Amino acid sequence: MTALRERFSASWERRLEAQDRRERVRARQLHRWRTRRHRRRFAALVLAGNLLTIAAALVAHRQIPWVFAALWIGGLVVWMAGFTLLRVLSGRMSTAFSELLDEREREWRHRANYAGYQAFCALVLVGFSYLMVIADTADAAYRGAMMLAALMVVGLSVPTWVLAWSLPDDDPEDFIEPGTGEESDV
Questions:
Q1: 104 phi-psi bin (left φ>0, alpha ψ -120 to 50, beta other)
Q2: pLDDT tens across 86-110, in order?
Q3: CB of 166 within 8 A of CB of 109?
Q4: 84, 164 in Cβ contact below 8 A?
Q5: Contact at 8 Å (CB) between 33 and 88?
């Protein structure tokens, strides 16, 4: 059992080190965009993608499948682009292991996750209400599943939205190369 525990511990340490290396590389990317203004723009982009997927779920019962497909795929592409950029711009708080975060970052992430949990619970209630309204219609299960999937994507976005909206601008001194005194463009 000790050998298994040691292997697990070593594996965990390797993952932490790899995550820390990735986060150090990401921290140097897009540093001029790490402002609250840019993060809020991308939060609006994520919201637009979410609204497109909800619109797709609302028209899922229509006999025009290309409208549903265009809205659904378009919404997911817009959402994924904005969400990925927000995760990079919000820094390691959205993706890092708790051990790699300082106390302030951990507290912000916990608050954002709690807001996401509350929003997710509210969205489940919205989804169930939608299911009750459409219960007697044709394809109610399919339409309900599409709406629940769209609302799930919205719920998963909330913690990243909260971080993007509430984080202060990064300190420009964090991007000065040590020893040179010049800003890095990496």
A1: alpha
A2: 888 887 676 666 777 788 888 888 8
A3: no
A4: no
A5: no
Q: Which residues contact 70 (CB under 8 A, 6 or more apart)?
A: none
DSSP β-bridge partners for residue 66: none
Could you give the count of Cα atoms lying within 13 Å of 152 in the half-sphere of its Cβ? 6
Task: Using the Cα atoms of residue 18, residue 19, residue 24 and residue 27 in order, give the sign of their dihedral.
Answer: positive
| Res 149: pLDDT | 94
- For residue 117, give both structure tokens: 């949990």
pLDDT at 12: 83
Angle, alpha carbons 160-165-168 (nearest 5°): 110
pLDDT at 178 over 70: no
DSSP string over 51-106: HHHHHHHHTTTSS-HHHHHHHHHHHHHHHHHHHHHHHHHTGGGGTS-GGGS-HHHH
Count CA within 13 A, CB hemisphere, residue 160: 29
Amino acid at 6: E
DSSP states of 132-149 as a string?
HHTTTSTTHHHHHHHHHH
Taking phi over 0 as left and psi of -120 to 50 as alpha, with beta for the rest, 127 belongs to alpha
The C-alpha atoms of residue 23 and residue 29 are separated, in whole angstroms, by 10
pLDDT at position 176:
54
